Structures are given as C-alpha cells and as structure tokens.
Amino acid sequence: MTNRRVGFLFIVLNLFLVGCSGTFTPTSIVPTETEGTIPATATSMPIVTSTSVLPTVLPTLASPTSTPNSKVKVRCLEIAQEHSLDIEGRLVLAAEGDASRSSYLLDMKTGDQILLPQSANESLLSLVVSPDKKWLAYRKYDALTNTSQIVISTSEGKPQRIIPWGDSWREIAGWLDSEHLLISKESDRLDSLLVFNPFTEQQQELLHKYDNIYNDQPSPDWERFAFSRTIYDSTLSRVIYPSTIGENGAFVLWNIKDNEEIVNFSGAGLITYGGTPKWSPDGQRFAINNAITTTLLEGEVPEELFSVSKDGEVIRLTYLTEYYSETSIGQFNWSPNGQYIAFWLRAKPSSYPNPYSDPGPNPTQRLAILDIAKHEVTNLCIPGGDVDTSLVWSPDSQQIVVENYYDPHFPGRSHVYLVDLTQGFAVTIAEDALPTGWMEAAP
Q1: I want to staple 226 with a disulfide (CB 3.0 to 4.6 A). Which of 27, 219, 264, 374 is the partner?
Q2: pLDDT over 70 for what percent of the chain?
Q3: What is the CATH number of the domain that holds 225?
Q4: Is residue 126 a part of any domain in this protein?
C-alpha cells in the first residue's frame, strides 16, 4: 500500500462482500492500556494559503491553532467471537460482486437478518443511509435487462419509493441531507452532480465551474470510488475540490455564494488524496487528512488530521508524528454527535498483543478514535486489513462498526467487528460484508 496517496493516484478497490451474523452470548473482555503525552510542538504544515491569486511557491502556515498536551493512548481490545448485546437500530451490510451473497439489515438487538429484496440477476449497489437514519437508498441493477432503479427503503427493508434510473446517471454519490441525494452524472471528464429529491423527484444540476478544478484522469482517490471530485456542505454554500494549482495540486475550499476561494491546502509537492474531506454533522467545519512534510518515509508521507471551519480557520487535531516514527491515515468518519472522529491509522513502530497477527514489514492499519474536546487519540489496535473500508457509527455515538478486509482475493473475505466505546469491548458480528450505515429501528 505504499505510494497510494501521492499525486493524483486513483486506485479503485473492487470489493466483493456478503454477510452473515454471529451469535451474541456473554464473554469477558480485558483491555490493556498505555498512554503517552505528546507535546504540541509547532511543526511546519504545507497546507494553507488564503489568496485566490496563487504565488509561484505556495506559502505554509507555520503555526496553526495548536492542541496543547495532545495525547495518544493505546488501549488494545480483544475481539470476542460472541458477546451479549442490547443495542438499538439496524446495521446495513452490503454485498457486491458475488451473486451468492445478499445485502441485508442486521437487527442489533436480536441478531436477526432482514434480507433486502433482489432476484438472482440483480445487484444492490451504493447503499447509503440518510443523515436522520430513517432512509436507505441504493441502486438496484438488473444484469439481464441492463437497467437500474433507485430504491428508497425503511429500516424494515421495505421499499417505499422505486424510481427509474436516469439515462445520464452514473452512481449514487451519497445524501446531501435527509431529503436529497447526490447523483453523479456521466460526463466527458467534467465532474457533474445532480441534487435529486427521491420523494418528489425534483432535481437540480450542480455545474462545477470553479477556478482550476482538476478534471483529468485519474481522479483523486476519494471514497465512493471518486464518483464526485466535489464535496459540498448540506446548504450548498461551500464546496471542497481538488485543484491543479501548485506543483502537484491542492485542495480548495470555495465560497459558492461569493464565487471566491476561501483557503487552499497545498501538499508542497506531495498532495495526499487518501480520505474524502468530511463535513461535521453540524456542517460548520470539515475534517481532512494532509501531509505535514514533503519527506517520503519508505513510500509514505506522514499525515495528520486537521479541521477547517467554513470561514477557513485551520486547527490541527492530531500530533501522531510526535508519538510514531511513521504515520498515515486512511478513511475517517465523524461521530453523529460531532465529538469524535474514528479513523484508520497506519503507524510505526507498532506492537500489538495476541490475537492480532504480525503486521509484517509495512504498517497495518488499526482503528483509532480522536476525542476532539480532550485532544486525545486512542489506538484500539482493532485491525483493518490492507484495504481502506468504511467506519460506521451508531446513532448515539457509543458504538462503531468496522470491517477487517483480510483477504482481497475474489470473492473477498472479511470480519465485521462492533466496538463498544463506553463498555470497552469488541465482538465479531458478521462475516464477509461491508457495513455502510446504521439506521434507527422503526418505532
């Protein structure tokens, strides 16, 4: 996985997934914990310029708002095969690429599976849960007729709306808010999104005419297989996009209303495109992982997490490089209450107890949780395999579900773990499935 985020490298990860649930019975978990205090040493950050007229050499922000007494804790949770659960809601588990596997909803309280309706020749693609956790949207593709439909389903697995697929539509890129989907459109290298209300079928096209937007191939290595190069806030007042400015490009935060750049993030020769920038649940800022130096360390660039407000205020959230000699960050996700960010961490040196396998010569990614208020990162040691996969929070922000994609060979093998942050345990809840969302159970 070296050099996977340098330049405009785009890697399409073809996941073939399916699920089955585990049995929930009591067991004991004994976590181990160590702690290290990280000084908030000011380091140069090749990241920010606030002018839309770019100089030849991108300036750096030497002193972003710092985080005093930042800490990294290591709390390795054992992974049980069985554990009693009393958790509300239904987890969405997707299966793609293998007709023998089915996508389904897993009732977190009973362990029951609710299969989503599909025939032998149909595939369910791009399963995404609305921000209010009430609706599941997905594309149903029929291989025999080469046609697709958008399906809007409840947490009971029952379709409420079935809508014919548009001729120029490419894929569901996600929810803009709880009433509107974002759909990417087929286009000649120009990134184009459609705001689509599946309940009224009203639509609005977003034309991406921003300064220096990167429209060439390959696309940035963002989530959703780069169905969109543009990341909008829910009010459509701000957009983040990759730009051609600078030696190897940059991220830009753009004010749509005033049609001007707010801030841009330069990689100073090594721009990273690992995880999609993510807006916080309240929409006031977004998180981004970015390189903090131009020096390659065995093919990787050291990365940290930052947050950026809608007005361009930058706060460095992590100081992992003060604790580990090498770091890189994979996919990450805000908790629904906005207090935490879960992310995949690759770090050296790394030493993990049994039952984890030897990480080998390259860092193996592990689940880490950032407590934003405490300025504290907890490395839970939960393995994630060699492929970046999604991290799904429970609606109450107390649990998180992740996939350990340990065998990428067709049709793909994985473990699905539930991690309870309040009680401090982890348990295997499914096999060979991709968690994509967590819905609230119907009252």
Answers
A1: 219
A2: 71
A3: 2.130.10.10
A4: yes
Identify whether 409 is part of a domain.
yes
Token duo for residue 421: 């942050």
Does 4 score more than 80 pLDDT? no
Conformation bin of residue 259: beta by default, left when phi > 0, alpha when psi is -120 to 50: left
> What percent of the chain has a predicted confidence (pLDDT) above 90?
46
In a domain, 16, yes or no: no
pLDDT band at 361 (very low <50, low <70, confident <90, very high): very low
For residue range 344-355, list pLDDT tens digits in order.
Answer: 998 887 766 544
Residue 207's pLDDT is 77
Output 177 or 14, whichever has higher pLDDT: 177
In this predicted structure, the answer to whether residue 416 has a pLDDT above a threshold of 60 is yes
Higher pLDDT, 70 or 234: 234
pLDDT at 203 over 70: yes
Looking at the domain assignment, is residue 4 inside a domain?
no
Number of domains into which the chain is organized: 1
When pLDDT is averaged across residues 192-208 and rounded to a whole number, the result is 92
Q: Cα-Cα-Cα-Cα dihedral of 15, 19, 23, 28, to 10°?
A: 10
